[in-house]
Amino acid sequence: MLHDSVSRATFGSRIGVIFVTVGSAVGLGNIWRFPYMLGSNGGAAFLLIYLFCTLLLGLPVMIAEFYIGRHSKRNAAGAFQVIVPGTKYSLIGYNGVLAAFLILGFYFVISGWTLEYVFQSLTSPLADQSVAEFKAAFKSFSTSVWRPIFWTLLFIAITHIIIVTGVKKGIERSSKFLMPVLFFILIVLCIRSLTLPDAGKGLEFLFKPDFSKLNSSVLLSAMGQAFFSLSVGMGCLITYSSYFSDRTNLQITALQVTIIDTLVALLAGIMIFPAVFNFGIEPTEGVDLVFITLPNVFGKLALANVWSTIFFLLLAVAALTSTVSLHEVATAYLHEEKRISRRKAALFVSLGTAGFAVLSSLSFGLLKDWTIFHLSIFDLLDYVTAKIMLPLGGMFISIFVGWRVDKKILKSELTNKGTTTFYFFTFYSFLLRYIAPVAIGLIFLNELNFI
After folding, report:
1. 4 vs 217: CA distance, rounded Å
2. How many whole angstroms separate alpha carbon 289 and alpha carbon 138?
3. Contact 73/336 with Cβ under 8 angstroms?
4. Of 68, 279, 391, 426, which sits with the fewest C-beta atoms within 10 Å of its C-beta?
5. How far apart are CA 244 and CA 240, in angstroms?
6. What DSSP character marks residue 291?
7. CA distance linking residue 162 with residue 419, whole number of Å
8. CA-to-CA distance for 429 and 60, rounded, in angstroms?
9. Distance between CA atoms of 337 and 323, rounded to whole angstroms?
10. Residues 32-63 pLDDT 10s
């Protein structure tokens, strides 16, 4: 059980639970990685597989993480010590805590870039600049020493303040503000994109399947995107669900979060592809799509700086909801397991991730030749977490809940002691035992280029 010195908060409202959990899942991956993945893998055909995999792969593992968190009322590492004390299963939780910490080491850098581009959109004219000029500006900024670090540290400070304020007053209250803002901005940008002359071409690419594009690579990419989009395997969902009340319907909450997370990704596609096709730009670009291509697109619109500012505010909000959830994973672990105050735990996490983030930022310029296994510090943190730690975490969580947890206990938790109904529990158990581990294992091998 929890140490006596640690009092545990819970989220205060159902809408708070939804916004907080959606905020954990929604991030930069929804806004730019999903459109990029969709663009690289044939458009609508990829979308259909992604939706299918989200329901049959992502949703079951999310529910499993909800069970672990709510049943234990503990952080990602401590949860396994409560459910199966004295076993090696706690390594799954430690993997999640470490993954969240390391992800912040590079995610804060990209998050800081969004603030720089909000600032640039407010202060610099975008019209009449060429793609080459946008590329040169991005390279100059990302490889410089102090500007990226300033914005990175500012983003860390904002995240830190929210975490220190607490579960209810910090995380829940900020999510209730940030998530509606994110949706409002996203919808405004979608409306603007749909008013462009050739918007129909972008929508056709997004929603009209070309099944000739389908192959094993597209299938595995869609499975991977579905898995990573919901933020499973990194401890965020376990940590947040540990703050759920006993009345929270875990099944409905997981389904709502999955639907909203997918909706955000679809809206991002509606926002980006009409604009991309309207100006004859390839829809397969990655980081360039956000920080080079789209500013170029905005420069061709009336009120260019207004639309650019709104877009990068959207990215900043999406990034902030993710950094808060990742930070909370590590903070809750230190607070509960090491018996230190929440304020001190948050400070340790902020300072530690700041150190990694500074090194990651410098790896684009000053430290670009400092590599480990031929990877820069930024790329190494990304590779180790996204391609190794998260798939392994998700796979072992599904194995643990599917095979180790007593079915009666699992069903009791997922039905709030029988007060709600789980109509497809047998099918859910089958997915968790047999389908999810194999599918995630295939994603793992594909990410490492073994298949």
Report:
1. 51
2. 12
3. no
4. 426
5. 7
6. I
7. 35
8. 9
9. 21
10. 778 878 877 878 888 888 898 898 888 999 99
Contact call for residues 11 and 167 (beta carbons, < 8 A): yes
What is d(CA 416, CA 420) in angstroms, rounded to the nearest whole number? Answer: 6
- Band of pLDDT at residue 222, cut at 50, 70 and 90: confident
Q: What is the pLDDT of residues 251-307, one digit of tens each?
A: 999 999 999 999 998 998 898 888 878 777 766 666 667 787 778 778 878 888 898
Q: Which residues make Cβ contacts (< 8 Å) with residue 153, sequence separation at least 6?
A: 112, 354, 357, 358
Residues 6+ apart with CB under 8 A from 285: 36, 39, 292, 293
Give the SS3 label for residue 375.
Answer: strand
For residue 12, the SS3 value is coil
d(Cα 89, Cα 106) in Å, to the nearest integer? 27
Q: Rounded to an integer, what distance in angstroms lies between the CA atom of residue 419 and that of residue 421? A: 7
Closest CA to 348 of 104, 49, 24, 28: 104
| Identity at 106, one-letter amino acid code | F
What single-letter amino acid sits at 224? G
Tokens coding 49: 């597989």
- Token pair listed for 307: 């639309």
First-residue to last-residue Cα distance in the chain: 43
> Buried b vs exposed e over 216-249: b needs ≥16 C-beta within 10 Å?
eebbbbbbbbbbbbbbbbbbbbbbbbbbbeeebb
How far apart CA 245 and CA 136 sit, in angstroms, is 51
Q: Please give the backbone phi and psi of residue 372, each rounded to the nearest 5 degrees, phi first.
A: -130, 125
Helix, strand, coil percentages in the chain from 3-state DSSP, rounded to 5: 75, 0, 25
> Which residues make beta-bridge pairs with 372?
375
Q: Give the per-residue pLDDT at 356.
A: 97
Say what the pTM is: 0.92
Of 85, 59, 61, nearest to 72 by C-alpha is 85
Output phi, psi for 375, to 5 deg.
-120, 140
